[in-house]
Amino acid sequence: MKSAKQRPGATKINVLLVEDNAVEAELTKVLLAGNSLCQFTARVAPTLAAALEAVRTGPVDVVVLDLGLPDSFGLATFDQLQAAAPELPVIIYTGLGDAEVAVEAVQRGAQDCLTKGQADGDLLARAIRHAVERQRIELALERERDLFRALMENIPDSIYFKDLKSRFLRSSRSQTEMFGFKNPEDIVGKTDFDMFKEDHARRAFEDEQEIIRTGKPLVGKVEKETLADGRLRWALTTKMPFRDKQWRIIGTFGISKNLTELKLMEETLENERNHLRSLIDALPDHIYVKDADCRFVLCNQAVSRFFKLGSPEEVHGKSDFDFLPRRLAQQFHEEEQALLRGETPSVHRETEFGEQDGRTHWVITTKVLLRDGHGRIIGLVGINRDITERKQVEEQLHQINLELARSQKETLVANAELKAAQTRLIQAEKLESIGRLAAGVAHEVKNPLATLLMGLDYLAEKFRESGEDVAITIAEMEEAIKRADDIIHGLLDFSASPQLDTEETNLNSVIEQSLLLTYHELRHKRIHVIKHFAPDLPKLPLDRRRIEQVFINVFTNAIMAMPVDGELCLVALAQQEADGRVKVTVRVEDNGPGVPAEILPRVFDPFFSTKPTSMGQGLGLALARNILDLHGGKIEMSNRPEGGACVTLTLYA
Amino acid sequence: MAKRRILVVDDEVGFTKLLKLNLEKDGQYEVRIENDGVKAVDSAREFQPDLILLDIIMPEKDGGEVLADLQREPSLKNVRVLFLTATVSIKGVEQRDGTIRGMPFVGKPVEPKRLVKRIEEILNS
After folding, report:
1. Could you tell me the sign of the dihedral formed by the alpha carbons of B120, B121, B123, B125, in that order?
2. ipTM higher than 0.90?
3. Option in B22, B57, B88 nearest A454 (CB)
4. Which of A135, A364, A457, A471 is the most buried (most CB within 10 A)?
5. Which of A447, A492, A494, A549 to mutate to test the interface with B (most CBs of B within 10 A)?
């Protein structure tokens, strides 16, 4: 080998001569120096201790070792040195008698052994160089082996080598254990048919034979494998042709990554996704995702059905403007843009959702922002719930409520009317019994009065000449009879038939007529009449003649109370009652002295009068009250703050 | 001129006596009294009055029944009748058509002068 010398810049080999014999050492140095193969630098260590020190400090490429040293002898010397520098090549260089020990040393790792005195320079140099070379190769090989072993022993992926018949040559530990074997050697010679179910083994075999035939690798194939014991396994497999130095295919090798967990996770994920999708599609609510431009990214089937699309996928890239009336789409767009700007959250908002199938749809919408992994807003997720049914029910409820309120009002009115009718009925019954009584009394009283009047008249004729006293007496007696007759008449009026003869009547005209009928009294006292009649008074169901009687009585009463040149003020107005009825009120105000508080409660009692007996029977106001009662109305008297009395009459339309 | 015959049918005995006195005092009328409604038609048939003053409310037979019987009697069919009554429904009647069963009436109590005036009106009509 001439490589060391020929190679420019090749370094000298540093040789450590461990030799206690100085002459021997010097001789060896000379031998080395005189060789023709390569250059050496030699150092000498006379003892093992010196050798160990030299090895520690270096540089030493190779040790030429004499086993017999002052501080060590035989194999122990080699052992100690090797322990101190295991990678350093050692050549045993010893005397003739030590041949057996030298052989033993070579077995323990020494590179070579030479016998002193038998080697010339070139032989020694070659031996040393070979030792160094061999040691280097061995170390390199060992390193390669270590790397390969590390791979085969530790990588969790399955790694294998197979021959041309797909029989295992080598198998990684992970694969060995997966197959249920303890040592990789146990698998050698076996095939996939021993390890997997038939169908997978067959496919794998065919794949490998294809690789062998074509030389094309199989890369990244996902395989579903069933092991011999039934276990399921997913793997990502790459298989390559296995070639020798001559590039001939001598088999296959491959690596297979276990994807089972990943695959199961993926399956689980896929299942969950499907479940979620089914759930979302099964929901009647509209669920959708829109991008930052408010274009649909995806939606569920409820949305695609509502938009009359074939499938949810068709919605992609479209917007509300493609489906909804422009006004509505614009409204949603603005709302969503506001949401995307972070201005207004849109939660549980009730919105009219346009017409479909001839009816107005209503939805509750909730829209929330959609963000990416960095928190940036990328769109929105929305849910619309159709609440049309609820809205219709609400509307129906509202109508029913209105109807209820209306019928309640009607009931109230009917109740009021019923009550009024009842009051009238009771009043009528009362009046009827009074009337029957009055009629009986009247008949029984009138006959004696008639007899008295007849008699008095006859006497008056007879005693015409008997003087003034007699004439006065008879006149007074006649007057008394008339008064008694008037009272009877009043009583009969008061208890007249409770049957009303009503018709729709203009109250103003009744009042005017009553004023006409009291014209003489008014004129006699020069009473000034002021009228404030509301122009829009409704017609009232009245017994015209009797209401006239009422006003005549009230006016007469007021006129009697007033001084000459008095002022009678009449006010008539209408207003709507809470129960819906229209109430008409007439106030008759005089500027007389008013009514003493203590007698106010009694002014409507029959036969109650403050006037002199000759001016009335005290039945006028009582009769007025009866007639008002029969009409379901009211009559009240009060004193005006500015003086005078006020009679208030109330009637209902 | 012959006296006019007036039959007074009324159960009020005192009243009929005084009425007779008053009507006969000037010699204008011949007055006959019948205080029993049941006998009224007999009395009338016998008396043949020019006018009957007829009370309404009487025991046993009231004025309405008497009038009906009178109108069934051929000799009395055309006799004039003036109701003279204390009955209470007069005012109601007045407002209807001013007559009772088509006959005029005067309410009690009444002054003799006014009654005579009404009698004359009827007899001369």
Report:
1. positive
2. no
3. B22
4. A457
5. A447
Span A170-192, pLDDT tens digits: 999 999 998 889 888 888 999 99
One DSSP character per residue, A3-61 reads HHHHSTTPPPEEEEEE-S-HHHHHHHHHHHHT-SS--EEEEEESSHHHHHHHHHH---S
Phi then psi for residue A638, to 5 deg, are -145, 170
Interface test with B, best of A434, A454, A461 (most B CBs within 10 A): A454
Please answer yes or no on whether A457 and B110 come within 8 Å at the CB atom: no
CB–CB of A18/A69 below 8 Å?
A: yes
Taking only the tens place, the pLDDT of each residue in A333-355 is 998 998 888 877 777 778 887 77
**Mean pLDDT of the region A566-594:** 89
CB A514 within 8 A of CB A552: yes
The SS3 assignment for A612 reads coil
Residues from chain B contacting residue A481 (CB–CB below 8 Å): 109
Domain of residue B86, CATH code: 3.40.50.2300
Please state the domain count of chain B.
1
* pTM score above 0.80: no
Beta bridge partners, B82, equal: B53
CB distance from B110 to chain A under 8 Å? yes
Cα separations in angstroms, A646 against A301, A569, A639, A640, B61: 79, 9, 6, 6, 52
> What range defines the domain where residue B32 resides?
4-123
Q: Which residues of A touch B25 (CB under 8 A)?
A: 458, 461
- Cα–Cα distance measured from residue A225 to residue A219, given in angstroms and rounded to the nearest whole number: 17
Q: Nearest CA to A554 among A487, A647, A641, A470?
A: A647
Residues of A in contact with B108 (CB under 8 A): 446-447, 449-450
Q: Which domains does chain A have, with CATH numbers?
A: 3-150 (3.40.50.2300), 156-264 (3.30.450.20), 283-386 (3.30.450.20), 393-493 (1.10.287), 500-652 (3.30.565.10)
CB contact under 8 Å between B88 and A457, yes or no, is no
